[in-house]
Amino acid sequence: MKKIKTIILLVITVFSISSFAQTGINSPYSRYGLGQLYSENLNTVSMSMGGLGIAIHNPTVLNPMNPASYGSLDSASFLFEVGVSANLTTLKTTTLTESGYDATLSYIFAGFPITNWWRSGIGIMPYSKIGYNVEVKIEVPEFSDVVHSFSGDGGLNKVFWGNGFNITKNLRAGIDATYLFGQSSRTSMIYYPDSVFILGTKVEQSTRAGDFVLDYGIQYDFKLSEKTIATIGLTYANKFNVSSKTSYISKTVSGGQNGSVEQVMDTIEYRPEVKGDIVLPAKFGLGFIVKQEDRWLIGAEMEWQKWDEFEVHDVKDSLVNSWRVALGGEFTPKHTNISSLFRRLTYRGGVRYNQSYLSFYGKPITEFGISFGFGVPLKNSKTGIDLGVEIGRRGTTDNNLIQENFVNFSLGVSIQENWFQKRKYR
After folding, report:
1. Where are the domains of the chain?
2. 7, 301, 322, 368: which could form a disulfide with 357 (CB 3.0–4.6 Å)?
């Protein structure tokens, strides 16, 4: 009972902090596709190593990047993890600069054994986020200026139930059954700020989505020496159709900008609750690590996704295929229980490079990040605290585009308890 109360208290605390701090992301690039994806920073440990995770397996960490890794979870323990994240972003053009921040609950995971060859994991985390507010002003000589404004918010979340199976001593396979759900709203408006006689045009679109998708994974260990092993990991997700409903309305309005009261003058078009599908493209990942248990780890991975298959209600978007590469690792000094704190920490670092699914003027929007962090084990406990920081850049100022410079922070807490050991009495 004490263990359960501790977990409940921790969840309530984190939710309270998150609800108080959350403000929503601020990224003009989230206007396109599904928004800003959260595929490379699934937990604090992975983020601290450049998003590394496809080949990683650890009995004390639930790794949702590859469901096969669940097979390495401790056979006698219940694992609970929770994380919060924060983000500082500076938007930059050739003439303007603007800053914003975002803070939120980032994940809740739990892992536990089913049998001696079957482990399971459950969790919830964001899949994508939308958050932007942009105005484009066009000066027309001898006429009123024309302003085109765009805004949007929302995104998708994912709840997963994963299962990892130990096929042999060195081979693991896994599958994640994920339910994607969420909603988004997007608004665009054209108005004429210098004239009260010209009506503006406003378009509002909202989308609700919810459906199941599947992800598959496999890992294989190669023993290099008595204490050193190498692991290769593969992940795959086939193309899925996610059910959705979209509402659309366009209208002529007077006012509604810069704090003024909006008056609807006429409805141009209205389409309520139109059913359709969002086509999620196929994805493939490959990773490789070499590690010495409880001492060090180094690895690299790549991931590719076929975003030119993406559609919303049978309408294709102008997205391009995306890919990412990552390199990272961790190191734990030799220590004892009486060693200093700095010798008991696990130090992590990594780097990643992404080509996103966006391309403007024939040039893809890329993203680069350098990350570092550390894990803090608590004495006489299997509880650990992980901290991670990532510094990076997204986009470019070329061709009047926007460059985003960001700093991501992540804090994770993991609790491992021996809930499944049989007590012995004399």
Report:
1. 20-417
2. 322
Q: CA separation (Å) from 113 to 122, 233, 241, 347, 348? A: 12, 21, 32, 28, 28
Entry field: residues in the chain: 426
Give the integer Cα–Cα distance in Å for 308 and 125. Answer: 25
| Predicted TM-score (pTM) of this structure | 0.87
| Residue located via tokens 């509880």 | 383
Alpha carbons 277 and 88: distance in angstroms, whole number: 34
* 8 Å CB contact between 156 and 126: yes
Comparing CA positions, the residue from 195, 200, 161 lying closest to residue 179 is 161
List, in order, residues 6 or more apart from 234 with CB less than 8 Å away.
54, 217, 218, 219, 284, 285, 286, 287
Superfamily of domain covering 20-417: Outer membrane protein transport protein (OMPP1/FadL/TodX) (2.40.160.60)
Find out whether 351 and 369 touch, Cβ atoms under 8 Å. yes
Q: What one-character-per-residue DSSP string does 182-195 give?
A: EEEEEEEEEE-TT-
- At 355-397, the pLDDT tens digits run 999 999 888 999 999 999 999 988 777 788 999 999 999 999 9
**DSSP track, 364-412:** EEEEEEEEEEEEEEPTTSS-EEEEEEEEEEEE-SGGG--EEEEEEEEEE
